[in-house]
C-alpha cells in the first residue's frame, strides 16, 4: 500500500512538473504563434482577413448631426438675440460602399478613393429628414464677405429682395445638409452653380486620394494614412494640427494598448 501511495505521489509530481514545463513553454510559444498569425492576417493585402474588413468596414459607421432651430425669427430680423432649440440627432449611415480604385504600391502602401454616400437611419434619429428648420440663410449671410465692394453689395441686395430671401430661411434637414437650390443665388447671372448645402456635393462623390500603410514593413503602422491627396499636410491649420495624422477612423493597427491615443483624420472637417 505504502509503495503504491508513494508511486502515486511520484507519478503525480512528475506529471505536474511536465505539465508546468509544457505550460511555461507553450505560453510564450502560443503567444508568438498567435502574434505571428495576427501579423500575417492584419496586413492590408488582397487575400487577408484585414483586407476584407478594410475594403468595406466590418462594423457600421454612422454620422450624426444636430441642428439649431431659431424660435423667434421675426424678432431676430429686427435685431433681437436668437432663441435656439437644438434638434437631432439626425443619423446617417456612411462608408458602407467598398473603397474604389485600389492600387497596391511597391513601398508598403496602398492607395484608394473613398466613395461618399449617406443613408438616413430613421431608427437612430429623432425626427425625419423632412423636419423643417428655421436657420441662417447661408448664401445671404455670405454676401458681405464675398462682395466687399459697396456697388456690388447694392446689386446683391436687389437680388436678395427680388428673390424674397431674408437673413433666415426655412429648410428641411435634408436640404441643409446635402444641398438645395438657393433662390437668391439663382438670380445672380455670374453664379453658375446655385446649390448650397453644408456638405454639398457629397453623395456620389469620391474622397481622396488616400495612401495608407499596409503594415508589411511595420505592423504598428497598418491603416495609418501616409498621405492625403498626395500631401502630408493640409496647408490649412498651424502646427501639428495641419498634419494628416492617424487612420481614416474605420480601421486601426492591431496590438493597440488600452492607454494608447488613437488618432484619425476626417476630410470633412479637415482635421
Ligand atoms: C483581389 O484579387 C483577386 C484575384 O487576384 C481579384 O479578382 C480581385 O479583384 C482583387 N480584389 C481587389 C479589391 O482588388
Ligand atoms: C486611381 O489611382 C491611381 C494611382 O494612385 C491614380 O493615379 C488615378 O488618378 C486614380 N484614378 C481615379 C479615377 O481616381
Ligand atoms: C445617397 O445615395 C444613396 C444611394 O443612391 C441613397 O440611398 C441615399 O438616400 C442618398 N442620400 C442622400 C442624403 O441623398
Ligand atoms: C419626405 O418627403 C419626401 C418628398 O416630399 C417623401 O417622399 C418622403 O416620404 C418624406 N419622408 C417622410 C419620412 O415623411
Ligand atoms: C418659416 O416658417 C414659419 C412657420 O411656418 C413662418 O412663420 C416663418 O415666416 C417662415 N420663415 C421664413 C423665413 O420663411
Ligand atoms: C507641408 O509639408 C511640406 C513637406 O511635406 C512642407 O514643405 C511644407 O512647408 C508644409 N506646409 C505647411 C503649410 O506646413
Ligand atoms: C501625430 O501627432 C502627434 C502629436 O503631435 C505626433 O507625436 C506624432 O508623431 C504624429 N504622427 C505622425 C505620423 O505624424
TrEMBL record:
Q: Which GO terms describe its cellular component?
A: apical plasma membrane; caveola; cell surface; Golgi apparatus
Membrane-spanning residues where? 7-27
Keywords linked to the UniProt accession: Cell adhesion, Cell membrane, Disulfide bond, Glycoprotein, Golgi apparatus, Isopeptide bond, Lipid transport, Lipoprotein, Membrane, Palmitate, Receptor, Transmembrane, Transmembrane helix, Transport, Ubl conjugation
Q: Which reaction does it catalyse?
A: hexadecanoate(out) = hexadecanoate(in); tetracosanoate(out) = tetracosanoate(in); tetradecanoate(out) = tetradecanoate(in); (9Z,12Z)-octadecadienoate(out) = (9Z,12Z)-octadecadienoate(in)
Q: Does the keyword field hold Transport?
A: yes
The biological process GO terms on file are:
amyloid-beta clearance by cellular catabolic process; cell adhesion; lipid storage; lipoprotein transport; long-chain fatty acid import into cell; low-density lipoprotein particle clearance; receptor-mediated endocytosis
Q: GO molecular function terms here?
A: low-density lipoprotein particle binding; low-density lipoprotein particle receptor activity; scavenger receptor activity
The record's section on Pfam families has: CD36 (PF01130)
Q: Where in the cell is it found?
A: Apical cell membrane; Cell membrane; Golgi apparatus; Membrane raft
Q: What family, per the record?
A: Belongs to the CD36 family.
- Protein name, please? Platelet glycoprotein 4
Species per Swiss-Prot/TrEMBL record: Apaloderma vittatum (Bar-tailed trogon)
What taxonomic classification does the UniProt entry list for its organism? Eukaryota, Metazoa, Chordata, Craniata, Vertebrata
Amino acid at each position: 500500500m505504502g509503495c503504491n501511495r508513494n508511486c502515486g505521489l511520484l507519478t503525480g509530481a512528475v506529471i505536474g512538473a511536465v505539465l508546468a514545463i509544457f505550460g511555461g513553454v507553450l505560453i510564450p510559444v502560443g503567444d508568438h504563434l498567435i502574434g505571428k498569425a495576427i501579423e500575417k492576417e492584419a496586413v492590408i493585402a488582397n487575400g487577408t482577413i484585414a483586407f476584407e474588413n478594410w475594403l468595406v468596414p466590418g462594423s457600421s459607421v454612422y454620422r450624426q448631426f444636430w441642428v439649431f432651430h431659431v424660435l423667434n425669427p421675426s424678432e431676430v430680423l429686427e435685431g433681437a438675440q436668437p432663441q435656439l432649440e437644438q434638434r437631432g440627432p439626425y443619423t446617417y449611415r456612411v462608408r458602407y460602399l467598398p473603397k474604389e480604385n485600389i492600387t497596391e504600391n511597391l513601398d508598403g502602401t496602398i492607395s484608394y478613393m473613398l466613395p461618399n454616400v449617406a443613408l438616413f437611419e430613421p431608427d437612430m434619429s429623432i425626427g425625419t429628414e423632412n423636419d423643417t428648420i428655421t436657420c441662417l440663410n447661408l448664401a445671404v449671410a455670405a454676401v458681405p464677405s464675398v462682395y466687399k465692394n459697396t456697388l456690388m453689395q447694392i446689386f446683391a441686395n436687389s437680388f436678395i429682395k427680388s428673390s424674397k430671401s431674408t437673413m433666415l430661411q426655412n429648410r428641411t434637414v435634408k436640404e441643409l445638409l446635402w444641398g438645395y437650390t438657393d433662390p437668391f443665388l439663382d438670380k445672380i447671372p455670374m453664379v453658375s452653380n446655385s446649390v448650397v448645402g453644408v456638405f454639398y456635393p457629397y453623395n456620389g462623390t469620391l474622397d481622396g486620394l488616400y495612401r495608407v500603410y499596409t503594415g508589411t514593413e511595420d505592423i504598428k503602422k497598418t491603416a495609418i494614412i501616409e498621405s492625403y491627396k498626395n500631401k502630408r499636410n493640409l496647408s490649412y491649420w498651424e502646427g501639428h494640427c495641419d498634419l494628416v495624422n492617424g487612420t481614416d477612423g474605420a480601421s486601426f493597427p492591431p496590438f493597440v494598448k488600452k492607454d494608447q491615443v488613437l488618432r484619425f483624420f476626417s476630410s470633412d472637417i479637415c482635421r
